[in-house]
Amino acid sequence: MPLIGENLGYYYQKERWIFKDIHLSVAPGEVLGLSGYSGCGKTTLSRILAGYIKPRNGRVTVGGGELKRNAFRPVQLIYQHPEKAINPKWRMEDVLTESYTPSQDILDAFEIRDEWLKRWPLELSGGQLQRFCIVRALNPAAKYIIADEMTTMLDAITQAKIWNAFLRICRSRNIGVIVVSHEAALLNRICDNLYKVGRD
Length: 200
Ligand SMILES: Nc1ncnc2c1ncn2[C@@H]1O[C@H](COP(=O)(O)OP(=O)(O)OP(=O)(O)O)[C@@H](O)[C@H]1O
Ligand SMILES: [Mg+2]
Fold this sequence. Notes:
Layout: E1 3-11, E2 17-26, E3 31-35, H1 42-49, E4 57-62, E5 65-66, E6 75-78, H2 92-96, H3 104-109, H4 126-137, E7 144-148, H5 156-173, E8 176-180, H6 184-190, E9 193-196
Parallel strand pairs: 3-8, 3-9, 6-7, 7-8
Antiparallel strand pairs: 1-2, 1-4, 4-5
The structure holds adenosine-5'-triphosphate (ATP) and magnesium ion.
């Protein structure tokens, strides 16, 4: 059941198209890279593919069915800014177990420490918070995960560790991944295919 975006187009201000005629598809287990200049619409496209905003043109399907609103999202989105994706009024243990209870193996894979679970989001660094967002996206029902500049805030060593753990788990569950990044070296290393949004 592939994730397919057909003929996608979007504008925020009437008729000022950010992109048009985007066709892309991702198969289970495939890693697709999305690149393009800053402001070309990668984050907008990610939000469309995950079902958070409706495209002005075209449609998104998973296994032939359109994404439903207010249902569990088979396409999970990990944002560049984890602090914007986490409720600041919840302790981390509640953030972590909101939609499912992750195994200790997963927590260990992302080096999430027990002592962090009692803290509030403001008491963790951006990189520590992002690990929670990644684990949250790895819900057992997730079929696809879009990682929008997921590790931009991390140092090179931590970045490599997190990608290794993330891709290993996605591969083992046959999850299709869309990697949004402006780092050509990262995309070339981990992606099976690449799609460029917008002009050069
Ligand atoms: N809520 C919004 N209302 C109006 N315009 C918006 C909104 N969000 C984004 N835009 C504009 O839409 C265009 C695409 O933005 P988007 O964030 O999708 O780009 P991007 O490719 O992800 O950029 P970056 O590489 O900097 O993250 C930009 O010109 C941006 O200013
Ligand atoms: Mg963006």
